[in-house]
């Protein structure tokens, strides 16, 4: 009996820790920076993609207006088409076999009915928006994407992330000697994707920037 109680207790602690972790993760992401994990095995590729809501729809407040909800829907359906995110060399003949895309928000974990107030959301959005414009202009003038500024982080009270998963089957997987990222054309707020590729021969990391949306994989797959 004691053992059971202890086990139940540890489980509760574990899941609390998991929730805290998830919450912290959402708040800790850097706007403009997405993550893509790619695993290659045999003829299959599995990919997990995460991007801040700011990158995909330009906001991270709870979607209350129809316009917000519409933008989230559009963001999800853009992500559901993998060709908007990455492309592989034609000869590899990769076909997508599974896709899922969804929005994660901090409210997802709010199972106990805490009524969090988002009263300031609108106010801070306006600031966030102005800052976005100012920042965008600033970056453009200098011609490169500088990592900025507390502006967005400080202006937003909540964070959201888009998560997507893809499975592919490739007829000629060894023809994959590069990946390109139309993602940057699809999402104007996106600045960077941190790509991790795990193959049978090892793991590699890349920081893919908007001005060079391509990685060289020759000899890796
Ligand atoms: Zn955020």
Topology of helices and strands:
Layout: H1 2-28, E1 33-41, E2 44-52, H2 53-56, H3 66-80, E3 94-105, H4 121-142, H5 150-155, E4 160-170, E5 178-180, H6 183-186, E6 192-199, E7 202-209, E8 214-216
Parallel strand pairs: 1-6
Antiparallel strand pairs: 1-2, 2-4, 3-4, 5-8, 6-7
The structure holds zinc ion.
Zinc ion (ZN) is lined by residues 29, 31, 52, 54, 60, 156, 159.
Describe this structure in words.
The chain is α+β, with helices and mostly antiparallel strands and 221 residues long. 35% of the residues lie in helices and 29% in strands. The protein has 6 helices and 8 strands; from the N terminus they run H-E-E-H-H-E-H-H-E-E-H-E-E-E. The strands form 2 sheets. It has a 6-stranded mixed beta sheet. A two-stranded antiparallel ribbon has the order 5-8. A hairpin with a 2-residue loop joins strand 6 and strand 7. The longest helix has 27 residues. The radius of gyration is 20 Å and the shape is elongated. The protein starts with a helix and ends in a 5-residue tail after the last strand. The N terminus is likely disordered.
Keywords:
221 residues, alpha+beta, six-stranded mixed sheet, two-stranded antiparallel sheet, 6 helices, 8 strands, 29% strand, elongated, disordered N terminus, binds zinc ion
